[in-house]
């Protein structure tokens, strides 16, 4: 199976070939936009004299901003027909934010840029999910989610490799320039998605023949999450997972930057490349497993990977431990990228509230992700990086227990044909 797939092999129905290719290209270029500068931000700020704790606090501010914005932006993705414009605004915000950090690396401006990046990242998730569902429908969703994730991770590999090379040759400012170019590329790909190929009723989870009344109701926001026990369980597990996962990769870069044992730009790029190369086949595999056995087993495997990753990173601090640590990162992220939106689409199918529900889940998981840098940075400052990695990995254990206990609610969930 190729990453791009083919018009004949995909169950995307009548979706045009050009829009499908453009969606793949969009996911590729958004790879360096969706998560902002990621671990390169910490490495850059360490060079500017910042402490690990201060970097963690600033990243937390951005995470909180994204967390607060995700549910309203998910509701917007359900309601608006300007889904492409949502993504375009995010790309522009990413460009402005990266340039601000490069030229004015002070706490107020970096914090403001992280807020903008957090909001942009919060909007991209529901917007891409809505575009995908609107283009391929429920029957093609699992396949397309796997393809989206594969292209996204492929973009991350290319961006990380170029960032490492340019950072080594020209210094870390070259990473900011590359991110700006990737954001511009996403705008070009976005313009190639034909608006007429997007079914906006299907994009929000309405069944065929669901009627306009369901589509005209005001989005429920958090009520869609709180009234549905399966969404509550899923969101809680994601919060615990990201509480442990959010700070792990930045801390790997900070550990190297702090002791000066290796070029930080090259090391950070290597951490990303190893993980992303793992995510590409895992995302495609997750798509196949979900269609054959359901989303439950895919999500379970992702939860198992994080405690093991924290254990390896905490007990083995040498350069060679980077490989298994980041392979495990790729396992978790590659599987979740398919499982989470797929589970939400199944849980909310027929309600017209798929993207606001996805936004609500992302809001709750964002709570864990936003706290993680502060928690990880504080533990690393007080007790060392080894203790931080062990503690972060342990946060996923309660999520694993919850998922196993309540798994009966999810075992039957697997991709189905359009209604």
From TrEMBL:
PROSITE patterns given in the database record:
MFS (PS50850)
What keywords would UniProt list here? Membrane, Transmembrane, Transmembrane helix
Please give one Pfam family short name: MFS_1
Task: State the source organism's domain of life.
Answer: Bacteria
Q: Which residues form the Major facilitator superfamily (MFS) profile domain?
A: 1-411
Q: Where are the transmembrane segments?
A: 50-73, 85-103, 115-138, 150-169, 175-193, 231-253, 265-287, 294-316, 322-344, 356-381, 387-406
What's the name of the protein? MFS transporter
> Organism, per UniProt?
Fulvimarina endophytica
């Amino acid at each position: 199976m190729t990453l791009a797939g083919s018009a004949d092999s995909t169950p995307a129905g009548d979706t045009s070939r050009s829009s499908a290719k453009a969606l793949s290209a969009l996911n590729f270029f958004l790879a360096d936009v969706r998560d902002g500068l990621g671990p390169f931000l910490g490495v850059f700020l360490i060079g500017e004299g910042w402490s690990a704790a201060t970097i963690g606090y600033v990243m937390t501010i951005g995470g909180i901003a994204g967390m607060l914005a995700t549910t309203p932006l998910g509701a917007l993705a359900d309601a608006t027909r300007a889904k492409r414009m949502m993504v375009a605004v995010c790309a522009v915000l990413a460009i402005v934010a990266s340039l601000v950090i490069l030229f004015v690396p002070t706490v107020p401006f970096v914090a403001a840029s992280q807020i903008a990046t957090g909001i942009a990242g919060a909007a991209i998730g529901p917007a891409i999910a809505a575009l995908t569902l609107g283009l391929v429908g429920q029957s093609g969703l699992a396949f397309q989610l796997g393809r989206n994730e594969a292209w996204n991770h492929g973009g991350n590999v290319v961006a990380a490799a170029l960032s490492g090379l340019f950072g080594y040759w020209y210094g870390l400012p070259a990473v900011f320039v590359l991110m700006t170019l990737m954001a511009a590329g996403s705008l070009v790909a976005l313009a190639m998605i034909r608006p007429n190929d997007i079914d906006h009723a299907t994009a929000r989870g309405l069944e065929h023949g669901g009627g306009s009344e369901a589509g005209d109701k005001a989005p429920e926001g958090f009520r869609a999450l709180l009234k549905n026990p399966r969404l509550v369980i899923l969101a809680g597990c994601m919060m615990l997972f990201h509480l442990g996962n959010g700070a792990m990769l930045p801390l790997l870069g900070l550990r190297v930057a702090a002791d000066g044992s290796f070029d930080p730009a090259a090391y950070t790029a290597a951490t990303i490349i190893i993980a992303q190369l793992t995510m590409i086949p895992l995302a495609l595999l997750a798509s196949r497993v979900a269609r054959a056995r359901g989303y439950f087993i895919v999500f379970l495997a992702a939860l198992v990977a994080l405690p093991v990753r924290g254990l390896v990173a905490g007990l083995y601090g040498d350069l060679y431990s980077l490989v298994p640590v980041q392979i495990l990162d790729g396992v978790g992220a590659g599987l979740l990228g398919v499982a989470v939106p797929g589970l939400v689409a199944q849980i909310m199918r027929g309600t017209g509230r798929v993207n606001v529900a996805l936004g609500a889940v992302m809001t709750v998981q964002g709570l864990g992700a936003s706290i993680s840098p502060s928690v990880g940075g504080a533990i690393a400052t007080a007790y060392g990086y080894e203790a931080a990695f062990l503690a972060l990995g342990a946060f996923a254990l309660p999520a694993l227990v919850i998922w196993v206990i309540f798994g009966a609610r999810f075992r039957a969930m697997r991709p189905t044909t359009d209604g």
